[in-house]
Give the backbone structure.
Amino acid sequence: MEILILPAALGLIVLLWFMGTYNGLIRLRNHCRESWADIDTELKRRHDLIPNVVAVVKRYAAHEQHLFEEVTAARARANTTDHTGTHVGELCRAENELLRSVRRVFAVAEAYPALKADAQFLRLQQELVNTEDRIQASRRFFNANVRDLNNRVESVPSSLVASMAGIGPAEFFEMDDLAICAPAAVRF
């Protein structure tokens, strides 16, 4: 009888560890999904603001048609890129392209004093800045969740459970620093 108790107790301990590890991985994966939804909400907000900004700038700088077409095309690409969090790298590239084109619109706006003083333009510009701040905060939260998940998925012994459950590492949402820091190129 005692011979059966020890293997049964050991088996129960292993089963409980497996279940606890699996549930922890699922919880981390769900945190990643939830924080991705926050990023997606903010990206959609940005996409909704951009046509308004372009429309206001168009009134003042109608001859910059190529720039407006570029922004519209970049926004369309960013909108049609997978937003489920499955292809984060692809979405990052599309969003970086969109961000660079919007920066060029703001650089053009600098050349028009009347536009810089336009109340609607200033309000839209401030909304876009606020949205960018929220995207960055959401991105940091998402990347922290991804880091935690990846640490569990890639470390032993939880990596054994992750591989058996088909849970792999998640991809970080990284914005191109050049899109944020580099001066926008303006062509007149």
Q: What stands out?
A: Residues 114 and 120 are 12 Å apart (CA to CA).
